[in-house]
Amino acid sequence: MPSAPATxxxxxALATLxxxxxxxxxxxxxREQQRWAAVDxxxxxxxxxxxELLLAPAKRLRPSFCYWGYVGAGGAPDDARxxxxxxxxxxxxxxxxxxxxxxxxxxVRRGHRTCHxxxxxxxxxxxxxxxxxxxxxxxxxxxxxxxxxxxxELMRDAPGPxxxxxxxxxxxxxxxxxxxxxxxxxxxxxxxxxxxxARYKSGKYTVERPLHVGALLAAPxxxxxxxxxxxxxxxxxxxxxxxxxxxxxxxxxxxxxxxPVGDDLREGKPTPLLALASARADAGQRExxxxxxxxxLGAGDVRAIQHxxxxxxAVHELEARISALVDAAVAxxxxxxxxxxxRTGLTDLAYVVGWRQR
Length: 358
Description:
- Helix content is 76%, strand content 1%.
- It is mainly α.
- The chain is globular.
- The two termini are 16 Å apart.
């Protein structure tokens, strides 16, 4: 397994960024809790639920890519702009997670019970009127919408090109989510559909667009040279990110990922991993894969599916793809018109993304 070059400087920069982003998020939600507690304590409680997700230990990848896009385009490392933008990306991600958990029926997120189930539980224990499930899902959707609005608040002073890119990535995120639930419902197993979903649901909005937004915050007049150069790195790393995500969804350690192992298999996610295995499976293996998408899959069923994913060679091929994507992205940095500091930082991040454990 490849490892990142030993460059403690870039790691220190991102650790500092993460602390600043978390402080910005903490100040925002603290202000909003105090403001709305004066109106109704229950509103402040919803914001506290949002804060719990936002401030839980997380990778902070989107702020990191935004930061290196900013520094790569000539922005000063200690500026406030990439901090505000990084916090906006974390809020946007929280919006997506709240909604995603409702759409997927997920029970655990970052090691905690998901928002829609927490509020469904409260409805049941309080013996309130109406349906507990619908109430819980409604609260989670609204919590996500609040995060979406707060994200925009942090981006409101962005230059025009950065604001336009911010809007484009939000459209792409929603399009990707639609393709995901449609592909799940249709039990899509073809590679082209799976790869398109992976790119639009996650890859572009995790890597490529945060890079673009950061660069355009620092140098909006250089969009013509920066955007394509950063895409040459961002698209393959975004694809590698989602392929690794698929692997973790099927094989990851729940103690590390914060989600139950096999959740993607129970949900029937149309991943490239599953598409590859389905194309190569024999009759017996296809029968085992037919269980994908069953919410009642037990641990033994999950293990049987995992064996098919390995035995068909799908896991081996995806690992090779991830390695090739990382190599291609790092090579693209050699000709990118960015600072040397950003080139080093993005090289390190490429390896982190490709071989992360959560």
